[in-house]
Amino acid sequence: MRSFEGRFSRRIEFMQYYGQISDVFKMSRKMNLERVVRAMTGRERILAVLGGQQADHLPSMPITMMFAADVLGVKYGQYARDYRILVDAQVKTAETFGFDYVSTISDPAREAADYGANVQWYEDQPPAIIEEEALFANKADLVGYKASDALSGGRREDRVRGVELLRERVGDELFVEGWVEGPCAEGADLRGISRLMLDFSDDPEFVHALFEFNVESAIQFAAVQIKAGADIIGVGDAAASLVGPRIYKEFVWPWEKRLVDAIHAMGGKVRLHICGNTRRIVDGMGTLGCEMVDIDFPVPMEEARAKTGPGQTLAGNLNPVKDVRDGTPETIVRALETLQQNAGPQWIVAAGCEIVRDTPHENVRAMVQFAQMHATEGITR
Ligand SMILES: [Zn+2]
Question: For residue range 266-308, what is the model confidence (pLDDT) as tens digits?
């Protein structure tokens, strides 16, 4: 059967990116003749694992942004500006590699740009917020500041349209992910990271006011993405890995919790993604009630598991550069075998962070093939 499957996967590679992904995946599942049971859809597979149930095999949810733009052959500036291009790139990447999901994650400047922050655009890099000209460099500017509606034609609306079009394109086959900035990351975006770090001790009241603004705006943004068809909302709170456990518990956790609870109340699920070394705060991350917590590579998976408990679904955590880009399919499979042992059944295959753009395609394929060849057990909650 191998050569038959091999021919089929090559056919998927050359399928036009605007192809009907539902049909491609339905066909692919039907043609998987070695399976006794019906293969699950990517969406069913992820939902099963997030719900503590058994899936036909492990789900794979690697984050792709610049990598996906390269797969489609577009400049990253276009990917970040135009949801139709982002959607094409995500659909083509999911088709090519067999991912179980598609995502609208692109860069941290969506919200900040809409609020009026100065953003530097690049032809082939993610847009960046200019820290020296941060929107709330002057604290007084936060007082009485009202964020515009998420659907007022800006970069947030572009993401919402992206969610809508992804849902339309992938149907029920794949899981669709929206994205918002978490309180600490957005605080760094709007205030400047170095100013924010001083604010924690100098002006706690201001930090809470800033985080409240961030979270209430993020809830509005998440609401329209869920309405547009997002299954899960990624909460990117990168800057939280820079604070210690005391500041995390006092300032960050309560606002993350407010955001997570609000997304749940709207019928969404949450994927928490904090880039970097979260060893000192990962226990707190595990008590937010997120359906899925990403673990970046600096945190040993067995430690993350021990600190978050057996019921928390964790994703990760290959090193995107050392393991995934610079590895080989063989070293990647070995690393994933170890990860699976350390992570236990509530686990989703991914790198710790974004798949970097010059990663060899066979390495990404090795990750997905590992997932496809390994069963999940599920746990009873
Ligand atoms: Zn990350």
Answer: 999 999 999 999 999 999 999 999 999 999 999 999 999 999 9
Residue 103 CA to ligand 1 center (angstroms) comes to: 14
Beta bridge partners of 316: 295, 349
316 CA to centre of ligand 1 in angstroms: 10
The continuous run of DSSP H or E covering 234 comes out as strand 232-236
Q: What distance in angstroms lies between residue 273's CA and the mean position of ligand 1's atoms?
A: 6
**Residue 241 corresponds to which tokens in the numbers above?**
């890995």
Report how far ligand 1's centroid is from the alpha carbon of 141 (Å).
Answer: 30
pLDDT digits (tens, 9 = 90+) for 70-87: 999 999 999 999 999 999
pLDDT of residue 7: 43
User: What pLDDT, on the 0 to 100 scale, is given for residue 377?
Assistant: 72
Q: Give the residue among 45, 97, 39 at the shortest CA–CA distance from 68.
A: 97
How much distance in Å is there from the Cα of 272 to the middle of ligand 1? 10
Yes or no: say if 209 and 153 are a contact pair by the CB < 8 Å rule: no
CB 222 within 8 A of CB 150: no
- DSSP helix/strand/coil, 61: coil
Residue 319 Cα to ligand 1 middle (Å)? 11
* Model confidence pTM above 0.85: yes
Domains of the chain: 2-373 (3.20.20.210)
Å from CA of 271 to ligand 1 middle = 12
Ligand 1 center from residue 236 Cα (angstroms): 8
| Regions of the chain short of the pLDDT cut 50 | 1-19, 36, 380-381
Distance of alpha carbon 93 from alpha carbon 69, whole angstroms: 9
Looking at residue 10, its amino acid is: R
